[in-house]
Amino acid sequence: MKTVTTYENKKILVLGLARSGVSAARLLHQLGALVTVNDAKDFDENPDARELLSMGIRVVTGGHPADLMDEEFVLVVKNPGIPYSNPILEKAMAKGIAIITEVELAYQIAEAKIVAITGTNGKTTTTTMIGELLNQGLDQGQAYLAGNIGLPASSVAQQAGADDVMVTELSSFQLMGIIEFHPHIAVMTNLYEAHLDYHGSREEYVKAKWNIQKNMTKDDYLILNGNQPELVELSKATQATVIFFKTTGDVMANAYLDKGQLCYNGESLMAANEVGVPGEHNIENALAATIVAKLLGVSNASIGDTLRHFGGVEHRTEYVGEFAGRKFYNDSKATNILATEKALSGFENPQTILLAGGLDRGNEFDDLVPSIKDLKAIILYGESQAKLKKAAEAAGIAQIKLVETLQEAVLESWTLSQSGDNILLSPACASWDQFKNFESRGTTFKEAVKQINDKK
Q1: What counts of helices (H) and strands (E) characterise the chain?
Q2: 118 is in an annotated binding site
Q3: pLDDT in tens, 415-424
């Protein structure tokens, strides 16, 4: 990592722990800063705070006292999820104190090239694809995954060397807290409406996402989704060299879908239906990842081979396995209608049984009707069961089954299916009625599939 002396003997507040806060606190302490950590969780229930205290770092726990900002801090490093309405942050802003997120620290110490990925959907899959493409195809160095994918960027930046690449997934929350952060390559997978409770408006959400390119120059590359007119328009407002990917439309693109082939600069790389994960959204992800790989010197043959064997990301149209001719897919991450629509785009409905349900957000499911027409069957469970049944009836699905639990839904899907069918968990709902999170729901699905297979 680069030698940085900026923070020596400077008072810095790290607001909020979790992985990124712990990483930032450790790094700043290593760089000679006078670090104070503030976390809402009580000290007795806060192993991270106890560990940092043992290192000689000051910790303040059990709340966020605004009078902390009466001290002479020169910088606040905030957990991305803490809103700017937090009293400490409001006071810091009033005093003109800079507020950053941990990815800014990562940039300051990084020797590796940085590839940054953001967007509303597809970030994690695209980040993972890029990592695999580079690790299969780079002549020297390796790719490290970092950022919102679960590995703090400031920790990864300490490991990655000058020949390496940091493939960094970034949320809108993280991008609000950058000052000098400057990726060599940035990807915007798509833009939809999201996180309005945090940002207040779609305009502010888009503004946060667009921060990814604010320090880029003509020597850097900004990869955008040419299917989206909004991103085509935004492309006019950047200094970076823009490269588009597209599956439809007439925008000029370097990576595109043509007659069922993934193409780059006029050359066919592979058949689109050979990509290891199904769905049009994953074709977009593959095209975006391909551009990054080509910019960094990966061969066409290596790209094709890697994408054919790409197994997806856990809980995101994850291929679970084939049992007695039935293929099972875990798309537990689909917590809304749009995500389920995208998942279904990769399957032939007459050979597909959909498992859906959970906790809705007060919405109806009318928008799902076009995507679920002609399904072989739909199996519904959880609190949103009645609303989903109404949509299934409107779609004219012949077999609509209601069960209490996800485990029962898996068992019913086995009964209704035959060799050649796809069984897809893509709930279109949050998980919180029966599970603590979508990961737990997806794990339960996979365990239920395994149990049935073991019995057959």
Answers
A1: 17, 20
A2: no
A3: 999 999 999 9
